[in-house]
Amino acid sequence: MKAAAAMMNTVTLSSGSSTFWHKPISRINQNFKIRASISTSDNMVAPAIIVGGGRVGRALQDLGNGDDVLVKRGEPVPIDFVGPILVCTRNDDLEAVLEATPKSRWSDLVFFQNGMLEPWFQSKGLGDADQVLAYFAVSKLGEPPTDGKTDTNPEGLTAAYGKWASAVAARLQNGGLSCKVLDKEPFQKQMLEKLIWICAFMLVGARHPGATVGAVEKEYRSEVSKLIAELAAAAAAEKSLVFEDAMEDRLCAYSRAVAHFPTAVKEFKWRNGWFYSLSEKAIAQGKPDPCPLHTAWLKELKIV
C-alpha cells in the first residue's frame, strides 16, 4: 500500500525527447502555500515563477528581488503563487510544461519562446496567451544579458503582451534592459517580423555553410531581401494585416547587432514550418505557392 501511495504522488510527463520527472510530493509541500506580495514601488519587481534554469531563466531570476521561485526540470509548478509564470524552455518542452502546470494557473503563463506559437496556443485553448519577444542575448549561463538595440531602433526591440506585460517590462527595465508593452495587433506584427527574420536569415545562411548572420546581411543581401519580401507578403495575407514600411532595413539592422550568431534551420515546426504550411494549404486548394523561393530552398537543402 505504501508503494502504491508513493506511485500516486509521482508523475512522469514526456514531450518529444524531453521528460519532466516529478518527485514525490509530501503532504507538507502540498499544503504549503507560497504568498508573493506584489509591490507597486518603482524599484520593486513582482515575484515570479520562472520555468527553466537555462541562460534566459537564470538571467530573469537575477533581475528579480530574490523572491522568485525557479522551477527546474523535474519540479512541480506551484499552484498558489500569486504572480506570473515565466516560461523559458525550448519550444519542444512546452507540452510538458503545460501538463506540469495546474490548469488554474494557465492564464498566468508568459511565453518567452521564438517562433510561431499561435497554432499551439489555439490547440491548447490558451487563446491570447501572454508573450515576450526577447531581443536581448545571454552569451552564457550567469552572464548579464545584452540588449538588442539597433541603429534603426535605438530605443530597443524587446516587447511584451498580455496581462503580465507590465510586470515583465518592469523586471527587464530594473536590469537596464528595454521592453515595450504592446497591444495585440502591434505585438503580432512585431512577432511576425521576428519570425520572418529568423526564418529568412537562417535559411539563407544554411545555403552558405559557415555563414554567420552578419555574413548573410553583408554578403548575401540580395538573397535575404527577396526572401524577406516573400515571407512578409505571405504573412500579411494570412493574418490580414499591413506591416510598417522598411521591414528589411529593421531586420538587417538587427542582424548587424547580432552579426556573430551562427545560422542553421532549427525548430522547423515552430519557424519555417509555419510558412511551409501556408504553401501546402495554397497548393492543396489549387492556388499558387505564396512562398515559392522559400519552398525551393527548403527542398534544395532537403529539409522538406
Automatic annotation (TrEMBL):
Superkingdom assignment: Eukaryota
Protein name (record): Nuclear protein
Taxonomic source organism: Solanum commersonii
